[in-house]
Amino acid sequence: MKRSGVRRTPRARTPVTLVVPALLAVAFLTLPLIGVLVRTQWDELADHLTSPGTVEALRLSLVVSFWALGLSLLLGVPLAWLLARVSFPGKAIVRSLVLLPMVLPPTVGGVALLLAFGRRGLLGPWLEGTFGITLPFHTSGAVLAATFVAMPFLVISLEGALGGLRPRYEETAASLGAPPVRVFLTVTLPMVAPGLIAGAALTWARALGEFGATITFAGNLPGTTQTLPLQVYLLLQDEPEAATSVSLLLLAIAMAVLIALRGRWTGTPSDRRTRRPAPDTGDDTPGPGPSSAPSPGAAVPHGEQPVEKQPPGDRSWALHAEVTGFTRLTLDAGPGTTIAVVGPNGAGKTTLLRALLGLTPRAHATLRLGDTDVTALPPHRRHVAWVPQDGALFPHMNALANTAYGLRAQGVPRAEARREARAWLDRLGVGHLAHRRPAQLSGGQAQRVALARALAARPRLLVLDEPLAALDQTTRAQVRHTLRTHLAGFGGVCLIVTHDPVEAVSLAQRVLVLDEGRALQDDAPAEVTRHPRSPWVARMLGRNAWPGTATSEGLALDGGGTLVAAEPPEPGTPALAIVAPEAVSLHRERPGGSPRNVWPGTVREITASGSRLRVLVASELAPDLVAEITPQAAAELGLADGVSVWTSVKATEATIVPL
Which residues partner with 150 through β-bridges? Predict the structure, then answer.
């Protein structure tokens, strides 16, 4: 009988020519380990491992390995950060030097250490004469040798983790007022903890098993430099069974470390998610909160680079910026102004924000906020708070700690910072989620927490990079309403990068249109809607837009063809023709009567837009255009992809905007 059930997808056959060598490699690597297990005298194992010489060697190995780990952490962590985060001449050479001990024969490393720190080495005589320090044949020499060969494991592992950490977390922390050292300790290191732990474990294991450099540089003195690997070397000559037992101990330690790491040679930043993100539900509904915002009072100086104090009672800050580089413009805005920054990809929108933050070499901003010129200040002292597109909430902190981060970075006492952070979370309707971590928040909740964090940091300028782009339509409307409410009471200037015309119109008093780094238009939303000067903006608003050159009758289109308009500008003027989709008529036969603009074309696409249909028509005599009609009209015309039609536009329906 034939079996019924789900058919299995056939798997590709594994090539025998690859399997056989792979199995031989496994056997080659495994047999020596099996040899240790087979030759171990199990009944005498305890006696061998508890002998005075072995115990002393083990104690010394642990002392040396942990000291080596400490030195590696002290020196290797900053070195890994330097290699991962800073570009400098000769970086490849420095990395090669760091990794050299991993491929260098250990005895050669010992000779090199002897020639550098020995009594006749480069630094040895000076160390001995000035400080009385003699490294060879001393426990400190064994520590130095173990550090030399083991530290590269920490550096390469941590560098890989730092390289996988997106800089926006650190940049966001800086925009909240945290100086570089605080960012490194509170954001960077916690987020690369898996890589740091993996590197530290490998470093310790390598230091514990170090032999060649130690015996060459520090000697083999019982109780002073005779570590466990050196003990194995001596036991092989007189007590091979004991040497096998001690070797088994080292083997077990090494295997335990590798099993604990589970192959994570280079740890990657982890969000350490304990639960899946919560769905967007009614929890996003704004909840009750304090009736007024926490007062943006004076910030307390913090650390070696104090945050510039805000004048007491000053809660409004105008903006003046002159941006040069890829993005080139001058921007002035009064207190409480919200500006929507729009434009196509590559127009320079994000570059503008990053220039104001002081985070990019592509553009430079001469920036004045209120009465203070912050141009020369580092990002953490500018009072410019940034909310990236995904919020960049710190995954190792809960919502309350995230929101209080900027205040704590500015020196506000912990209790006060948490109290003010809680008030901001309550105002944005997510106070009941204060204990949750970012992975436990929905998209709308996370965006509210990110906004609360930025506002709680007492900024003078707030920059939002597509803050609602990742949200669904319902959640986006809710968060947009909340954002509009709280921006109304913000005393600084807010810049919002967006591709959504609804956001631009509903949130902003001004719309700044960028293209190729230049400002094409800076007007009120109503004016930009009526007379857009950018084809991209016009299309974003759902209109047909064609650039061209004005003629006596209308516009000679850059894409070919001519558009007749009722009120053309002066001939020769670069201009943009704007035609609303509802002003485009479709016919199956060439229309007669008054239309001045008539072109034949072919239907290429039909899409629904609310209760109407948008029909894309391609023509050889004019650029592609979109018509908006009712479903009933489409049925009467028999429209479908590939159907030939005629399009017509009245001259009075074409608006020409000089560029």
Answer: none
Least confident of 204-218, 343-357, 497-511: 497-511
- Look up residue 47 and give its two tokens: 């006696």
Q: Output the pLDDT for position 9.
A: 55
CA dihedral sign, ordered 282, 286, 288, 294: positive
Pairing of strands 510-515, 338-342: parallel
As given in the structure block, the two tokens for residue 584 are 């485009």
Exposure of 471 by Cβ count < 10 A (0-12 exposed, 13-18 middle, 19+ buried)?
buried
Please name which of 425, 418, 452 lies closest in space to residue 283, comparing C-alpha atoms: 425
Which neighbouring-strand residues pair with 364? 324
pTM of the model: 0.75
Closest Cα partner for 174 from 323, 356, 362, 384? 384
Radius of gyration over every alpha carbon of the chain, rounded to an integer in angstroms: 35
Measured between alpha carbons, how far is 531 from 543 in angstroms, rounded to an integer? 11
What tokens appear for 315 in the block?
């809660």
Helix axes 399-409, 443-456, angle to 10 degrees: 20
Q: Give the CA count within 13 Å in the CB-facing half-sphere of 619.
A: 23
Instruction: Give CA 220 to chain center in angstroms.
Output: 50
Query: Using an 8 Å Cβ cutoff, are 544 and 625 in contact?
Result: yes
